[in-house]
Amino acid sequence: MSLSLPDISALLLRRGNAQYGDEAVSQLQHALQSAALAEQAEESPETIVAALLHDLGHLIVAERDGVDEPDNSRDELHQFVVVPFLRGTFPEAVLAPIRLHVDAKRFLCATEAGYEAGLSPASKASLALQGGAFSAEEAARFITQAHAAEAVRLRRYDDQAKVPGWQGPDLTHFEPYMARVVTTAMASQ
Fold first, then answer.
1. How much is the pTM?
2. What confidence tens digit (pLDDT) does each residue in 126-159 have?
3. Whole-angstrom distance, CA of residue 15 vs CA of residue 189
């Protein structure tokens, strides 16, 4: 069942005030900061939307399980949980970076000196649950996938989007990006 744009906004507003794991921001603040960083970097509308929605799977799991906060002791596979809910709404240019953003962290840990050490404690803990750094072979396979480069950039926005007290655009600022991506995808079919 695909979520409509109003459904997505409602879910972000309804569930987004929950704490983002062990970070000092809420799920919604993290999503908005990620999208704002992508926008500041002049990313495509698809990548901005992917940045906004990359952790929506956490909210879907919380809603499904009837909990306020995710269980940080297990990997929810949030990057995969969300895809069926977005597939009928957004194109692969949005879905792939979302699906790949966890693997992008594993890739960066394997290929960039100091990257893993710079992760937040919560991100380090989730990395362990997600399988740790890629091997050289896994990293080489990962980066050849379509949209892997966008996923790596999204990962960097994700890492930076944990600033308490951040003041920036609200959800209404990013809703036109979602609508534009949907309209563009429908026109190209």
1. 0.93
2. 899 899 999 999 999 999 999 999 999 999 999 9
3. 33
